[in-house]
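[#protein-structures] MJ: dropping Phytanoyl-CoA dioxygenase here for a structure pass
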Amino acid sequence: MTDNSLLFRELDNQDLQNFRNDGFCLKSDFVNQSFVDKIRDKAKSVFARQITAQNIELESLEDVHFEKALYALFKKDFHAFIGAAKLCQHTMELHQLAIADDLINNLKVLGLEEPAICVKPIIFFNSRHISKIEGHYKTPGHQDWRSMQGSINSMVVWIPLMDLNRELGTLEIVPGSHRSGLYKSEEDEWFRNIPESEIPESEYVSIDVKKGDALFFSSFLVHRSGNNSSENIRWSMHFRYNDMNESTFIERKFPHPYKVYHPEKGLVTPDFPKRQDLAKVFL
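AK: finished. structure tokens for Phytanoyl-CoA dioxygenase:
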């Protein structure tokens, strides 16, 4: 086994039970840290090309030097920054991880009979120094299903590219919230947030994770990112999957994610799903 192997760990029945009960399961050391570093380094190299092209000093790709240069790029040429940020989502390493057989097999353990990628993999680099709005580095409470709107057993796999602590802003979740269906949400400049009147602040639980850990969670699980109050970038990535064999997804003619057909409620299928629909998945 080489340092560049993906080195997945196999999920088991206890992970499945945790997932059904709480809406998530956390697997430590899920991905080889060397491969995680490879993904992060490739993203840095994409930005480095634009940093150099804009004649910004970049001593090395070490965090202290890279972050200073990246913040300068954001201020000097936002279009160059955005172009690089978008290209980071298309690196071969990121997509290699998204379709790895062992990862797909683990999705099946958690109930996806026939996994299908919902949207391209995403690598995040969150900091207030490279954000136009707060939601770009501190996402409010939300449910991913509102944007995905695919199979009701759809799933997110979230993997940190570095050890995360409270200062960097860990992921915060509401255990068991996946069973309640869609919560009321309010439109904002980021997307839609779940107000505190729906879920009190006290119900959010911080999840401590290290580089290469993997958090599998239902797209109905309420979650948010903690506040990155540090001067550094918080690196992470996530992958979204639907189940092409899920009955309601088939009945609804495989609606395309992120396209809204019902502006009043922001849903492709009005009044869907109901709690009884979710009960069939999370027995």
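MJ: nice. The first helix runs from residue 13 to 22.
AK: one more thing. The mean pLDDT is 89.
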